[in-house]
């Protein structure tokens, strides 16, 4: 099968490209000019590269010609400004759909990697742009499926997993957790995300489906931190900050600067973020690993997380 992939230069996209190429699929990867070195290394006979930018409709010409499946992973998260999130998450998806109408075969399937945060009861422009993305895809004639992973971790994640492991590897100090740390989350290993999607190839219904992808069960944020400290071999102590003191700190900070993001972050730690993976378990036979098992594997996979980036400066001994 020839699969068009956006987001191939990202953390999850790299795993997805390698996993699907190992199964014999040909992967046509979308790459922005200047990002060629970030493309995952896969077998040459399974590798195609299309140079283009999601926000530039003209550059997408031919990207979906003769492909069987579009796997849309590329997105702009909350660390981007609002204009960029709209341009990529909404505008980029509209450009892909327009290219599909022009050049894709009638049997094209459109699978999107969205985010479990879509269902979170805390405002986020990222969440809302991803909701719109899903809606405009569903309105089209193409067969679609959407996969919503929650907090994804794994080897090679230098933006989230590596900094967290380095912090938890400290031998002294405190790891401060807002509120009582009892709100629940469901981290999921990146290889389990790839496994779920690969299983979907063999699912008989296989169209117009939605799957939330998360850990096997919710864990408190305190457990999340404690298990990460254990995996990293640190002796740093976790300490909780009461909601009262957190709110007072935000109040005084608000006297001098905008605290919108602080208030949203505080609200995040007051809510449970568990996700129902029943249909992935039942329909796909999918069973993700526990966080304790997964983060232990990630931490023991050489000392990759002690560096700021692949091939970059070593930050801890």
UniProtKB/TrEMBL annotation:
Which SUPFAM superfamilies did the record assign?
NAD(P)-binding Rossmann-fold domains (SSF51735)
Keyword annotations for this protein? Isomerase
One MF term in GO for this entry? isomerase activity
| Claim: Magnesium is one of the keywords in the record | no
**Pfam families referenced in this protein's UniProt entry, alphabetically:** Epimerase (PF01370)
Residue ranges of every copy of the NAD-dependent epimerase/dehydratase domain listed in the record: 3-202
Keyword Ribosomal protein assigned: no
Q: Where are the transmembrane segments?
A: none
User: What name does UniProt use for this protein?
Assistant: 3 beta-hydroxysteroid dehydrogenase/Delta 5-->4-isomerase
Source organism (scientific name): Rohdeia mirabilis
Instruction: Cite the source lineage.
Output: Bacteria, Pseudomonadati, Planctomycetota, Planctomycetia, Planctomycetia incertae sedis
């Amino acid at each position: 099968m020839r699969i068009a992939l956006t987001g191939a230069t990202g953390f999850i996209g790299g795993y997805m490209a390698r996993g699907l190429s190992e199964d014999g699929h040909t992967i046509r990867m979308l790459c922005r000019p200047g990002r060629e070195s970030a493309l995952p290394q896969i077998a040459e006979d399974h590798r195609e590269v299309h140079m283009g930018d999601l926000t530039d409709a003209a550059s997408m010409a031919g990207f979906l010609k003769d492909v069987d499946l579009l796997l849309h992973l590329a997105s702009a998260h909350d660390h981007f400004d609002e204009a960029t999130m709209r341009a990529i998450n909404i505008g980029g998806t509209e450009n892909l759909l327009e290219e599909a109408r022009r050049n894709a075969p009638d049997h094209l399937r459109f699978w999107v990697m969205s985010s479990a945060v879509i269902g979170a009861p805390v405002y986020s422009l990222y969440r809302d742009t991803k909701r719109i993305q899903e809606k405009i895809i569903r309105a089209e004639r193409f067969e679609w499926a959407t996969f919503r992973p929650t907090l994804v971790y794994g080897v090679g994640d230098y933006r989230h997993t590596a900094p967290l492991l380095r912090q938890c590897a400290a031998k002294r100090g405190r790891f401060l957790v807002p509120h009582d740390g009892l709100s629940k989350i469901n981290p999921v290993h990146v290889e389990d995300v790839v496994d779920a999607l690969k299983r979907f190839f063999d699912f008989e219904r296989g169209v117009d489906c939605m799957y939330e992808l998360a850990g096997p069960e919710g864990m408190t944020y305190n457990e999340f931190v404690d298990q990460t400290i254990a995996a990293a071999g640190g002796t740093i102590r976790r300490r909780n900050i009461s909601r009262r003191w957190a709110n007072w700190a935000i109040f005084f900070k608000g006297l001098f600067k905008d605290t919108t993001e602080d208030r949203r972050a505080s609200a995040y730690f007051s809510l449970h973020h568990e996700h129902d993976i029943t249909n992935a378990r039942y329909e796909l036979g999918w069973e993700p690993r526990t966080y304790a098992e997964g983060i232990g594997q990630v931490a023991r996979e050489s000392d990759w997380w002690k560096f700021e980036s692949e091939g970059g400066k070593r930050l801890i001994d």
